[in-house]
Amino acid sequence: MKKRILYASLVLSSGLLLAGCDETTGADSAVQVDEGLEDSANEEIAVEIKGLAHHYHSGDEVELMAAAEGSVSEENWHWYTRESEESEWERMQSQTTNRFSREATTDGLHIKAALVDEDHEIVAESDPAVVSIDDHHGQDELTRRIYNGFFYNDEIEDRGSTDWSGDWQSVHPYLESGGLDEVFEAKAADSDSMDFDDYKDYYTIGYETDVERIVIEDDAFTFYDEEGNDHTAEYEYDGYEVLTYSRGNRGVRFIFARADDNEEMPAFIQFSDHIISQKESDHFHLYWGNDRAELLDEVTNWPTYYPSDYTEEDLVRDMLAH
Hints:
Elements: E1 9-11, E2 30-32, E3 46-50, E4 61-69, E5 76-82, E6 90-92, E7 99-103, E8 110-116, E9 122-125, E10 129-130, H1 141-147, E11 166-170, H2 172-177, H3 181-189, H4 196-207, E12 211-217, E13 220-225, E14 230-244, E15 250-258, E16 268-272, E17 284-289, H5 292-295, E18 304-307, H6 312-321
Antiparallel strand pairs: 1-3, 2-6, 3-4, 4-7, 5-6, 5-8, 8-9, 8-10, 11-12, 11-18, 12-13, 13-14, 14-15, 15-16, 16-17, 17-18
Helix pairs in contact: 3-4
């Protein structure tokens, strides 16, 4: 399955609302405005916001662009924010072009773009776009320690398949297209021992797979190959195993055994996602095969999956944050 990469956009003229944008810091002088913005909007002009990401991490830069379609002779812009649906809109005085840029600091921030005339009267405006901030593994010391592979055995909990429920895409096609090169360049810049080619070779082996999509619903696991062919089987939880790696850190494999006779699917599937207790996963490495013990020795090929609605930009942002 080849995934078409699109920048997330919000077609605000039709009232479509996408979650996933960011908040502003106190650098702006904010002016409160009333809820009468909608009354003065011209329905013949459509306003679209482009560049909205699926989600941001704290400290990311939220960069949006407003575009007007219709009979527009001159473009002047106001941007407005509010912290929730119950809050009043505030105009961001420093944002006067069709570009919006702010650091991600508040989850759930609403952002609106308004096209104005030379007298600063509203000509057309967008529906709110909502910023989503998801720091995944958290910023506290305990969470970072576990993410890096240092934990105590009594911190491990059994986990059910619901922690991985959803529709997932392989990142391997993005690597092959060069879409992840920015990630490898950043890793090389921070390393004293590996360059760009070293990292790309390492992840090429790690990400390689012909299973480009996985759908997990309750106990049913469905694998889709590159041609879109699919196979489904039922699985049941089969415990976990703790692995110690050569660098001294550890990992946990959560294991599921096939519960039906569909031999088109592997007998065992093992999850590894830097999480060791009950929590929904945001991405994971997967191992599968017919020998439970033999799979535990596999540490070089770990097909990696992110939500299927992630764009290339979302993937790069998430990987750079780790």
